[in-house]
Structure formats: C-alpha cells, structure tokens
Amino acid sequence: MPNNDERQEQIFRAAAAVIIRQGYDKTTMSDIADEGGVSRGTVYLYFKGKEEPFDALLSWEWTQYVQTWLDAVESDSRGGTMGGFDQAIFHAVNSRAPGS
C-alpha cells in the first residue's frame, strides 16, 4: 500500500495526464480518480478540487523549464554571456515541447 506521499504523487500524475489529454475545463475529479485507480473520495483527501493539482502541474512545469534554461546557460562555453542566452532560451523551450 502506498504511503501518503506516494499516493499524492500517484494522484498528481493522474491529474496531469487527464488535464493534458482532456484540457482543464473538461477534467473532473472523477476523471482524475479513474485515471489514478483510486476513489473520488481519495482524490479529495489530497486535493480540494481540480485547481490544486492543476496549480501544482503549472508550478512543476515552470520549475522544470527554468531548470532546463539555467542548465543551458551554465553549460554555455562563453560562461553564460548574453550571447548565449538566445541559445539557452531556444534549448529550454524546445526541450519542454510536447513530443521532444
């Protein structure tokens, strides 16, 4: 049986999958529960509504984007100079694009 952190992660991943597939407006807590293989009540134990996992998804995606961007800047042979920022931004955006 998963511990609380593992269960929350499971539900978060399910919410992310459903929101990405169906869009935010069409996603229900029941959809998230079905995707995660848990009851709707279990979803509500961890999240008050679909806004919470959606906000967490946005925060996670933003963090991943920024980290990718910072990694690209730090690995620039020119020491992260302004000349390397355009390449870093291009790399960060392309690495987070769907299908990449």
Characterize the main sheet. Answer: none
- Average pLDDT metric: 83
Secondary-structure element pattern, one letter each: HHHHH
Number of domains: 1
Approximate helicity band: over 70%
- The appropriate CATH architecture is Orthogonal Bundle
Question: Which assembly state applies to the chains in this document?
Answer: single chain
Shape: elongated
| CATH class call | Mainly Alpha
Rounded to an integer in angstroms, the radius of gyration calculated over CA atoms is 17 Å
Task: Report on this structure.
By secondary structure, the protein is mainly α. 73% of the residues lie in helices and 0% in strands. The longest helix has 24 residues, at 51-74. It has one domain: Orthogonal Bundle (Tetracycline Repressor, domain 2), CATH 1.10.357. The protein starts with a helix and ends with a helix. The radius of gyration is 17 Å and the shape is elongated. The model has no long low-confidence stretch (mean pLDDT 83). It has helices spanning 4-22, 29-36, 40-46, 51-74, 82-96.
Q: Topology, please?
A:
Elements: H1 4-22, H2 29-36, H3 40-46, H4 51-74, H5 82-96
Brief sketch in words of this structure:
This protein is mainly α. The chain contains 5 helices and no strands. Helix 1 crosses helix 4 and helix 4 packs across helix 5.
